[in-house]
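During the second half of the funding period, the structural biology subgroup turned its attention to how the target accommodates small molecules. The most pressing case was coenzyme A, which had performed well in the primary screen but for which no bound structure existed. We therefore specified the complex as follows and requested a full 3D prediction, including the ligand pose.
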Amino acid sequence: MIKYVNSLDNINEENLQGFFVGWPNPPSTKKHMDLLRNSDYLWLAIEDSTGEVIGFITAISDNVLSAYIPFLEVLPNCQHRGIGSRLVKLMLNTLKDLYMIDLLCDEELMPFYKLLGMFKSEGMMIRNFHKQSGK
Ligand SMILES: CC(C)(COP(=O)(O)OP(=O)(O)OC[C@H]1O[C@@H](n2cnc3c(N)ncnc32)[C@H](O)[C@@H]1OP(=O)(O)O)[C@@H](O)C(=O)NCCC(=O)NCCS
């Protein structure tokens, strides 16, 4: 059974394996824990029988008007089972009292987010690739 939680209680680095698929220089599991700890909001999908985290979503926010969703990922062998959609729905509900909720995504994922009530926009960004594994 999959459970969805918004805390890091009983979660440690061992529960966080296999994420950042395709990243040339991914953050360590320690950095992944730091990222989760330092986010304003998070939701985790956990395989109850093993305690393994199989998906996560985070948001950072000023808690007045705006929030940004930097990360959503579901482990490859757990995808296409509705887990990603569920994580987005939980996060959008968590952020429902804020005016602006933004994220950046590839064109191919726009239909996924559109189905969840989001709209296409324009964006700008910088990526310091030499910092991809963390500060
Ligand atoms: C995007 C992601 C979180 C979706 O998780 P998921 O648990 O598979 O999502 P759901 O099962 O709720 O929905 C799956 C649907 O999303 C869409 N989708 C997911 N990934 C897609 C992709 N790369 N391209 C196009 N559509 C995609 C499809 O419509 C898919 O439908 P299908 O299962 O019938 O094929 C997952 O594919 C993932 O972790 N990808 C790698 C990281 C990433 O791209 N994160 C988003 C950053 S903005």
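Two results from this model are relevant to the next phase. The pocket of coenzyme A is lined by residues 72-74, 79-85, 103, 105, 108-109, 112 (CB under 6 Å). The chain has one domain: 2-126.
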